[in-house]
Amino acid sequence: MAGSVDVARQKMPDKTPPLRQALHLIARLGGFIGRKGDGEPEVKSLWIRLQRVAACVQGMRFQQKCG
Predict the structure, then answer these.
(1) Integer Cα distance of 67 and 53 in angstroms
(2) DSSP H/E element including 34
């Protein structure tokens, strides 16, 4: 997944991004390109990606507890 690599390597923004930009970043985890004619990411694809983000957060919390 080329999109997930790009998102993972991006520098953290100094301030919270607008909602539209945050949704596009989440959608990019699943390969959403965001070209001019692509439109907005669909709800189902965002839901799937948010589950992936939640799983990553759980893994990070587990790692912190284990040391």
Answers:
(1) 21
(2) none
| Helical residues (DSSP H) of 1-67, grouped into ranges | 2-9, 19-28, 43-66
Token readout for 21 is 């930009």
Look-up: residue for tokens 């983000």? 53
Domain extents in the chain: 2-8+16-66
26: Cβ–Cβ under 8 A, 6 or more apart, which residues? 41, 46, 49, 50, 53
Secondary structure class of 31 (helix, strand, coil): coil
Name residue 29's amino acid: L
- Per-residue pLDDT tens for 14-42? 899 899 888 888 888 777 888 889 889 88
The Cα 25–Cα 23 span in angstroms is 5
| Predicted local confidence at residue 52, as pLDDT | 85
